[in-house]
Amino acid sequence: DSAWVKYELIPSLEKEDGSVLICLHEGNSDPGKSMTEDTINCIEKSYKSIFVLSPSFVQTEWCHYEPYFAHHNLFHESLDYIILILLEPIPLYCIPTR
Length: 98
Description:
Blueprint: H1 2-13, H2 35-45, E1 49-53, H3 55-58, H4 62-77, E2 82-86
Parallel strand pairs: 1-2
Helix pairs in contact: 2-4
GO molecular function, one term: signaling receptor activity
InterPro entries: TIR_dom, Toll_tir_struct_dom_sf
Protein name: Toll-like receptor 10
């Protein structure tokens, strides 16, 4: 997943003029802040939030939190800005119930 994001998605989205910037956990974290704080700050500052969905994503702890933060911000700000990309089919047994 991370290789696809790094070598396919980011190069196709980022602009050389700096008008589109990508915020990732790797390389965009603020020293001294927790990963949760960084994630919330990143989502709040973003125009769009993109989630790349795959079996490995749903197996991470963050699969529960990141979409929740974005969903909460969506209704708080009344913006339609969540983009879901299904990178690989996810078997039903892998999808968390919450």
